[in-house]
Amino acid sequence: MAEPRRFLVVAMGNRVEALRVAVGLTLSDASLQVVVWGGMPEDEGARDHLEALEFGDIPVAVLPAGDEASWDELARHILDSEVVYCL
């Protein structure tokens, strides 16, 4: 059996929509990671999506914008992934 594909969802511009996409990808047989750029959105929709990701044991990393180390960390996540969705 083949290893599952490695997906990464990067939430940058439309962070709530990116979290929604990530929740949808939990239905695939892929290995999934989520990176939120610039802080976690605070609205109710985002909380619902985050709860679903937590329930699915999907790692969610928050990287602060404006920190040079965040760019390095984002690059590592991208290089470690086969498929990257950036929203």
For the CA atoms, what is the radius of gyration?
12 Å
What coarse outline follows from CA principal-axis ratios? globular
Tell me what portion of residues adopts beta-strand conformation. 15-25%
Secondary structure: helix percent: 40-55%
Average pLDDT taken over every residue: 93
Poorly predicted residue ranges: none
Oligomeric category:
single chain
Order of helices and strands: EHEHEHE
The strand count comes to: 4
The termini sit apart by: 31 Å
- Please give the order of strands in the largest beta sheet: 3-2-1-4
Structural class: alpha/beta
**Tally of DSSP helical segments:** 3
Biggest beta-sheet profile: 4 strands, parallel
What report would you give on this structure?
There is one protein chain. With 87 residues, this protein is α/β, with parallel strands linked by helices. The chain is 40% helix and 24% strand. The protein has 3 helices and 4 strands. It has helices spanning 15-25, 44-55, 68-79, and strands at 6-11, 31-37, 60-63, 83-86. It has a 4-stranded parallel β-sheet with strand order 3-2-1-4. Strand 1 (6-11), helix 1 (15-25) and strand 2 form a beta-alpha-beta unit. The chain is globular. The model has no long low-confidence stretch (mean pLDDT 93).
